[in-house]
């Protein structure tokens, strides 16, 4: 204002105009600076809220992952137990098959021995029959 009135009287020097502008610019700068700070605070608050939401999301994801991990570990423990039982059953079956094989081998040996004994008896009976026929009919003549 001073500069305008001084210029109007055409005695205004450039230094006087600059001095007159400084308080006006200072007030405008202060207002702009306050607006800028407010905007920075709003921006910082927005970023902080976004960071909080990111942290909450990461925490939720970590908890879900942990829960999934516990579930997987439980399933794996159950499967390990099932495999262990199956292995024990397979060992038991293998033992039973081995014993059955031994029993079958013994039975087949006994059956072979009985067949041989039967054939020996058949041969002895035939020899005896031939001898009886020979002595009864052929020797009598």
Q: Which key terms come to mind for this protein?
A:
141 residues; mainly alpha; 2 helices; disordered N terminus
Descriptive account of the structure:
It is a single chain. 94% of the residues lie in helices and 0% in strands. It is built from 2 helices and no strands. The longest helix has 125 residues, at 14-138. The chain is rod-shaped.
Number of strands: 0
Helix content: over 70%
- Which regions have little confidence, pLDDT < 50, spanning 5+ residues? 1-8
Number of helices, where a helix is a run of at least 4 consecutive DSSP H or I residues: 2
Please report which band the strand proportion falls in: under 5%, 5-15%, 15-25%, 25-35%, 35-45% or over 45%. under 5%
Quick structural summary:
The chain is mostly helical and 141 residues long.
Secondary-structure topology with pairs:
Blueprint: H1 2-8, H2 14-138
């Amino acid at each position: 204002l001073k500069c305008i009135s001084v210029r109007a009287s055409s005695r205004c020097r450039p230094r006087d105009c600059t001095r007159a502008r400084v308080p006006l610019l200072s007030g405008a700068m202060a207002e702009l600076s306050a607006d800028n700070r407010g905007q920075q605070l709003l921006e910082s608050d927005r970023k902080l809220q976004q960071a909080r939401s990111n942290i909450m999301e990461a925490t939720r994801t970590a908890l879900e992952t942990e829960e999934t991990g516990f579930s997987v570990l439980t399933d794996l423990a159950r499967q390990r137990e099932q495999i262990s039982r199956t292995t024990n059953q397979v060992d038991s079956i293998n033992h039973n098959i081995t014993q059955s094989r031994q029993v079958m081998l013994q039975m087949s040996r006994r059956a072979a021995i009985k067949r041989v004994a039967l054939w020996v008896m058949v041969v002895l009976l035939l020899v005896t029959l031939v001898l009886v026929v020979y002595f009864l009919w052929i020797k009598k003549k």
